[in-house]
Amino acid sequence: MQEIIVKMGDLELTTKPGVILIAPSLGSCVGLAVYDQKSRIAGMVHIVLPDSNVKHNLNTEEKIGKYADIAIPALLGKMLSLGSKRENLIIKIAGGAQMFNLKGDSSIMNIGAKNIEAVENAVKGMNLVVNNADTGGNTGRTLKLNAFNGNFYLKVIGQQEIEF
33-76 pLDDT, tens per residue? Predict the structure, then answer.
């Protein structure tokens, strides 16, 4: 099996059955994995921030997977253009932790919670649903998707990897 590491801000897509997509070290970032059960197309994005509007001079060198509002439509659009059907998609998300204990009004700096909300809204905005989620808390995670059989795996720091 070939492993493809989906780094911060990356978007990966595969039609090869011998590939495992891996979004490691998901702290406040959110990993979104999508699998088409019929066409066996697999995709993953490692989202860093909720909204591209916070950066007024978004440039073309910016990674397409960095912002939830553009990453999710881009990933799902690519999958649909390759023949995926909405009714066959399984979508799972992980991450969005509050990694630092901040004093005072920590909601301003809780990027994890904002990322979760942005991801859920972007998926909903495309008339799709998140089938399973392991989000929030204060622990990092790794999300994996096996493109051969569509199995999703989750590894929470300090715990055993589980099928997700």
Answer: 999 999 999 999 999 999 998 655 555 567 889 999 999 999 99
29 is catalytic: yes
Write the CATH number for 113: 3.30.1330.200
Contact 121, 74 (CB under 8 A): no
Q: Is 121 exposed, middle or buried (0-12, 13-18, 19+ CB in 10 A)?
A: middle
Domain region containing 28: 2-163
Rounded to an integer, the average pLDDT of 112-128 is 96
CA distance linking residue 50 with residue 16, whole number of Å = 30
Q: How many domains does the chain have?
A: 1
d(CA 78, CA 39): 13
Give the orientation angle of helix 68-81 with respect to helix 111-125, to 10 degrees.
Answer: 40
Q: Which of 11, 13, 23, 29 is catalytic?
A: 29
pTM beyond cutoff 0.90: yes
What pLDDT shows up at residue 63?
A: 85
